[in-house]
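step=encode ok
step=design start
structure_in=
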């Protein structure tokens, strides 16, 4: 039985059929499996293009969206810069613990 299976799957017709079956999977493969979001990234930002704010989320329109990954180093730099800006604006009233809460951190934008 295995010999018959091997004989039928070793020809050029079987190779073409297998190749045709593989094509749809190339469009479905998630980038995370191929190393899309690396271990050194803390976030992945997906946003509609600036010229089309109401762009739909469904594929293939989502291919036009801006995809950006934020590295740990970039996050630290932006966080420290925002902390310094807040410290300058608030002066002696600056509270580092209040700054690091989620409610306050959510106001920071990544651009």
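sequence_out=
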């Amino acid at each position: 039985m295995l010999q018959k299976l091997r004989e039928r799957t070793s020809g050029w017709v079987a190779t073409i059929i297998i190749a045709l079956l593989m094509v749809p999977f190339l469009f479905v493969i998630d980038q995370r499996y191929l190393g899309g979001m690396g271990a050194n990234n803390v976030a992945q930002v997906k946003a509609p293009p600036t010229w089309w704010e109401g762009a739909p989320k469904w594929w293939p329109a989502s291919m036009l969206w801006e995809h950006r990954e934020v590295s740990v180093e970039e996050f630290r730099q932006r966080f420290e810069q925002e902390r310094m800006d807040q410290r300058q604006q608030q002066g002696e009233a600056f509270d580092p613990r209040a700054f690091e809460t989620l409610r306050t951190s959510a106001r920071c934008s990544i651009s």
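step=design ok
step=annotate ok -> The chain has a mean pLDDT of 77.
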